[in-house]
Amino acid sequence: MPEAAPSFSPGLEGVVAAKSRLCQIDGTQGKLYYLGYAIEDLAEHSSFEEVCFLLWRERLPRARELEELRGQLQEYRQDCRDLFDFVGRFPHTARPMDMLRTCVSWLGCRDPHPGDASGEANFRRAVAVTAHFPTAVAAFHRFREKQSPVPPHARLSHAANFLYMLTGKQPSDLAARVMDVALILHADHEMNASTFASLVTASTMSDLYSALTTGVGTLKGPLHGGANEAVVQMLEKIGSVENVESYLSEAFAQKKKIMGFGHRVYKTYDPRARIFKRYADELSRADGDRRFFEINERIEELMQKRVGSHGIYPNVDFYSGIVYRSLGVASDLFTPIFSIARAAGWTAHVLESWQKNRIYRPASVYEGPGPRAYVPLDER
Ligand SMILES: CC(C)(COP(=O)(O)OP(=O)(O)OC[C@H]1O[C@@H](n2cnc3c(N)ncnc32)[C@H](O)[C@@H]1OP(=O)(O)O)[C@@H](O)C(=O)NCCC(=O)NCCS
Would you say the pTM of this structure is higher than 0.70? Predict the structure, then answer.
């Protein structure tokens, strides 16, 4: 019997690449769970620090354990002097995701025990890297604005402290809560491209920093984490509600994708987009500037008529960009914020995979010429 040809799934659609206990998506019902907890409940009641504990330790923390993790994150955050020096040397024109990708790699170079591959050492690295991401992003932004970096605040949450390091001012309760929810919503998402890419690197028994460098580089693309920035660029281009219809008609005529719509897994409304939409509405009312929110709603209404029946709905990036914009965050920091949150998911998946590692080594279908004789240079 000839061996059956391996089946090929472009983009690995429908291919199961791992078993995991961390995150579950129901793309038909529009549901997302971390360790069985619904994203709506986590967004309502939890904090980013608690979600980190949940993903890393696979259960909700007790009060003392949560305090301990908060303390560890704060302690690592205080260790920022050489990170400031490193970040300050980047060209100010560098793209923040490129800076962050390089920074993660550098964090690996300054690890005092790079050869220690024990579970505890890797857990400590996961906490440290998660603590350092916001510092790197905020400090880089300050340097390029010709401002001094702001050292971390000892008593603020991970989310509030990020806004504080970015602006030098303590954020309002609403701003701090919105950023906390944004980090919760982005913390993990099953076998997305950047998590998969991180796992491929980790599966060679490389190291956590290499896996995260891969993750940041993969998230950057506009088909993945870069879509939130692209959405705001699209809104700026559209300019007003009246222009939405003609913009969409032109985009469809040119077969362009509408950023912030569509998803490999969700064939209905992304539950995270619903939560972001609520905050986008609330923040735009508080600002008295409803323009972008109204453009977004109009795009959503028209897209529903055009492609809703094909399972193309708003994804997490459709409303997140205008939420960050309302918080005064520069648009090229939107994807870095996604990375700040996803550091928790990437590290959790890598730590989980190392409990039962097997190197990723898929196959490809060969489409080139068959075996043939080599032709010497002077005979070609
Ligand atoms: C997320 C995404 C990459 C998923 O890609 P995918 O699973 O490979 O799906 P495809 O790109 O093959 O799309 C399937 C069909 O839906 C259409 N489609 C998908 N997303 C679309 C969008 N945003 N706007 C218009 N049409 C879209 C495609 O044109 C394609 O139509 P066709 O079958 O007639 O050719 C894709 O939906 C996309 O590029 N969205 C825009 C970028 C974005 O918002 N990314 C953030 C994801 S969280």
Answer: yes
